[in-house]
Design brief:
Blueprint lengths: L1 H36 L4 E3 L2 E4 L4 E11 L4 E11 L3 H5 L1 H6 L6 E12 L15 H6 L11 H7 L3 E13 L4 E10 L3 E10 L2 H5 L14 E11 L2 H13 L3 H18 L3 E2 L3 H9 L4 E6 L15 H7 L3 E4 L2 E3 L4 E2 L2 H5 L3 H7 L8 H15 L1 E3 L11 E6 L4 E9 L3 E8 L2 E8 L3 E6 L3
Helix pairs in contact: 7-8, 7-13
Length: 437
Amino acid sequence: MKKSFTLLIVGVLVAGAVSYLAMQWKVRKSVDDFFKMIPLVEGKYANVSFDLNGNIAVNRVELYLPMADASISIGSVALATSGFMATLNLQRNLKAGRLPDSLALKINSFAMIIAPPAFDSGGLGLGNWITELTALGCGRFVTLGAQQYYELGFNNLNFDLVSGYTFDLPNDEFVSSVDLYVDGVGHIHIDQTSIGLAPLMQDFNNARYGFEPASVSTTNLHLQYTDLGYNKKLAEYCAMASGMARPEWDDRHARMVQAVFDQIELSADFDVLALYQGLRADQSRLDINLRPLPGFSLGDLQYYNVADLIDLIDLSVVVNDSPLVIGDIDWNPDRFKALNLSAVRKAFRVGPDNAAEPDDSASSAGQERILKPIGLNNLAQYMYRRVQLERLDGQTFTGELTVVTPSRVVIRTRFKTGFTDLPIARKDISAVKIYPE
């Protein structure tokens, strides 16, 4: 009996080891096939790991996109289930139509270097009302385009992401979550609990055979957002573009936003402008919780006024750790449809319509205040930084420093038709100034 039991244990261990090695081989082959299949992308990775907790990870991934001249590096891309056996059986269960009770995707240390945009409207083109509202008073810009965001400092993208779900079959409870941290921008976390997904979880083929989406309902949703530098970069950039100090620009922008609220006859039992300013503050924090009452349907939104809707979804909002009591908010729909942000810009004499020249000169004055003079001999220390070079003849050139040699300096500068590399002899340079990072 002992011998049989021992043989059974050994057999289970051997079978597990074989399955483990087979899974590693399958994952490695799938990753290799994936890299071969991606068009116009050059890629490689260091290794594939599969630990005893059921985590499959592709480590140290490097991608290059020649068409976009963009390089991407990723510390690891991992898939996790509830455990080792769940991962081993993942492929078999998926073939049978069964989804795992727990699944998570983890992207660690994603880093992408973004090349300067080859062309840009200069932020003068019209956007939607939200993008125009957030850029009100931002020098001569109507919206912020690719070039403006590049100048804001978003010349690289770094983030960590964890997204997944857990499913409790006895209670038919599906809990999903997203956690995204973008360096220098913000951190967003979302948790959502839903019921009614059991038929799909047990056999996702049911989605094609009479599954009724209306049977799924959300019982809880929590969203949390924390600013990690975006608000400060945006406000300082717009202040510079307007030739103003930051507090002065903040005040003008707030007055322009209030003018928009007045135009659409916005009314509320709380201070909407203070809420907007709180969300635009440096390192602002927003928490939203809602717990819809049973029977509530998004399809019936048109039948509720704001006050009733807030009660039906049990909405709570916290801004910068201060609870916001929302009782009622209203506006004139006809005035909203006729919203004219161009009129607001003209009233404050900003934007491209009637204040292009004044704003250009003010922007230059603002830039002059933050430019830092540096010695020509130290120029090589500031490779790929944005600089302003002045020649002996008085002409100035602004661009990204790309080449420094004993005889010449090359900067990449922007024209209406795109970018060009401009060589300047060192002996002709009279002054050098550098922009802040």
